[in-house]
Amino acid sequence: MAKHDEGQIGVVAALVRSTFLVNAVYAESAREYGLTSQQGQLLCVLMAQPYGMSELGAMLGLAKSSLTGLVDRTERNGLVQRKPDPQDSRAVRIALTRKGSRIAEEFYVEACKRIENLTTGLAGADRDTLAGLLGRVVQDNKVPVVFLEPGEGARP
């Protein structure tokens, strides 16, 4: 284990702790909209377009049974709907309802604002460096696009 200056932490601890921090902020935002974190993730993913169940499972990292339960609960709340897949009559695509689109947009904007606020103590150049480095980590590890950058084409 390498020693670090006081206040300095290593890359592993920094990434893990920042994950906990972002997840806590995200969960707090979700609760305020009557959502679980997973429902918030589902709504944000669906803002771009409807997806099939296998695509959603891969993007969200959920097993089929877990995803089915998540979609069922979110559908009961009137936020998503199952629609026939035009390419495969045996499959369905999950899409936002009108209510789901409205809540997804509001939740997305609020979550973005709160997550952005986590970096207010950084100078502009440091924020750019952080974004560049984290962006490379995400791209190098082929993380699916589950959350768009504000203004990057998110549409309800």
Q: State the major sheet.
A: 3 strands, antiparallel
Proportion of residues in extended strands: 5-15%
* Strand order within the widest beta sheet: 1-3-2
| Count of distinct strands | 3
Which whole number gives the mean pLDDT? 89
Written description of the protein model:
There is one protein chain. The protein is mostly helical and 156 residues long. The chain has helices spanning 11-32, 37-46, 53-60, 64-76, 98-117, 124-140, and strands spanning 51-52, 80-85, 88-96. It is built from 6 helices and 3 strands, in the order H-H-E-H-H-E-E-H-H. 58% of the residues lie in helices and 11% in strands. The protein has a 3-stranded antiparallel β-sheet with strand order 1-3-2. The model has no long low-confidence stretch (mean pLDDT 89).
What is the structure about, briefly put?
By secondary structure, the chain is mostly helical. The protein is built from 6 helices and 3 strands. It is 58% helix and 11% strand.
List descriptors.
three-stranded antiparallel beta sheet; single chain; mainly alpha; 11% strand; elongated; 156 residues
Would you spell out the secondary-structure blueprint of this structure?
Blueprint: H1 11-32, H2 37-46, E1 51-52, H3 53-60, H4 64-76, E2 80-85, E3 88-96, H5 98-117, H6 124-140
Antiparallel strand pairs: 1-3, 2-3
